[in-house]
Amino acid sequence: FNNLNWGPEKIAEEIEEIKQTNNMGFTTEVSADWEHIIKIYNAVVKRVPAEIPDITLIGGHSSHSYINGTNLYFVYYYNVECGVTEEVHKYHDPINRIIMEETLRYGGSIVHHHGIGKARAIYTEAEHGSAYRLLKGLKDQFDPKGIMNQGTIFPSDLY
Length: 159
Fold this sequence. Notes:
There is one protein chain. Strand 3 and strand 4 (69-79) form a beta hairpin. This protein has helices at residues 8-21, 34-51, 84-105, 117-120, 124-128, 132-142, and strands at 23-33, 55-61, 65-66, 69-79. The protein is built from 6 helices and 4 strands. The N and C termini lie far apart (44 Å). Strands 1, 2, 3 and 4 form a 4-stranded antiparallel beta sheet that branches. It is of the alpha+beta class.
């Protein structure tokens, strides 16, 4: 339990490790019913190494399960073989795109308990389908200037 909470010293250690190894990792959480979660997992772990260079690990785990389904944290690491400013475009964004595409293809949700957030707001319409117009209409009525949670749920370029 001594390593559960990350303070400034643990973050500094992680940054130093990334600098020394050029290897970094992230997680992306999704959710789905029991029938489809394994299909999402299998599709993602097949596509990511095939399409993204320098992958050193791809996997996943669940931490919240229910009678009707579960969440899944995809865990992925890669060797950064480019500049720091290019890392997001070469690795992080394409990996997330693959995870979102496969999750939506199999009828899962691109969120669980953390919410869509700014990084995934571009997928809100695909996530909600025909209900998107209703959500957007409510947002327009209650927040016509787009100042609440700007860029979260709905991309900021809409306002």
